[in-house]
């Protein structure tokens, strides 16, 4: 079952983590940090992740969430429009506009813990959040290509 909002999952996570005697610390582990990503297709696999943290005797689990803000969608729409001007019927523009129905919802959750010098992560995302990220990456990638077309030999 695919969820549209991860709020109930987050609430369940907080209760489950506390029930295992662990604390949560609001923190995001960035992609640049080397980490082991916990992989399991079961939507309830985050429980196994928390149990691994408990068995590693860690005092806390990091938790981060991403809520889609109106400004996020507005910025994305502006960037997509700029990239596809004058084609105001571009498929990407329709996709970006469809994201407005998800404003205020949690689209991404990350749990993490460190044990033995290794950072372990669990990530969950909604399909619309993945779509948002793909659009953002494609627009950002195109912007970098367009900006980066000058000759640096003059330096």
Automatic annotation (TrEMBL):
Top-level taxon in the UniProt lineage = Bacteria
> Per its record, how is this protein called by name?
Uncharacterized protein
């Amino acid at each position: 079952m695919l969820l549209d909002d991860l709020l109930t999952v987050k609430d369940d996570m907080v209760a489950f983590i506390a029930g295992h005697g662990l604390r949560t610390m609001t923190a995001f582990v960035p992609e640049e940090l080397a980490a082991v990503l916990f992989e399991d297709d079961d939507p309830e696999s985050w429980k196994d992740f928390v149990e691994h943290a408990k068995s590693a005797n860690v005092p806390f689990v990091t938790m981060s969430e991403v809520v889609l803000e109106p400004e996020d969608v507005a910025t994305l729409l502006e960037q997509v429009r700029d990239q596809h001007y004058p084609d105001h019927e571009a498929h990407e523009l329709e996709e970006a506009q469809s994201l407005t129905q998800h404003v205020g919802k949690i689209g991404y959750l990350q749990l993490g813990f460190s044990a033995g010098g290794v950072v372990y992560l669990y990530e969950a995302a909604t399909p619309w959040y993945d779509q948002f990220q793909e659009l953002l990456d494609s627009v950002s990638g195109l912007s970098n290509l367009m900006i980066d077309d000058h000759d640096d030999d003059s330096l």
